[in-house]
# Entry
Amino acid sequence: MKNTKALKQSPLSIAESLCDYWSPRVIDQFEDCYIKVAKLKGSLTWHSHEFEDEVFFILKGYLELELKDEVIHLETGDSFVISAGVEHNPVAKEECLVMLIEKKATLHTGNISHPQSKSIEAQLKPIVNRTTESFCSIPSNVKLNIKIADAKN
# Structure
């Protein structure tokens, strides 16, 4: 049995400590997936992930996921799965904190080059905690207990 540790901070408090909008940061991993947190405000860009699903879990706030034919409205506690290949644009009119679950190969904005696109390497950098100005890098062996709701169809 593997030895695991609990996060010293909740995903919400880690997301609150982020300084930049649209800059997801990896806080944990399992199998072939990363668990990330991000602080969002405004609009990202229309994009899709050709081969990977993407799970959005709203930690705090309100997010609109614009799809081709509809807008999905998510608030604190809601989750939604964007299926592989579905074009989408996340929009946060006010600050919103999210947790994302994605395959490790998932590119931030798919094959779209955008000024806000972040490389996987950038997403793996240690997180600087604004309140303590210390680095709060999360060890790779840390595991979270996460329940994922079914995608809304």
Observations:
- Residues 11-123 form a domain with the Jelly Rolls fold (CATH 2.60.120.10).
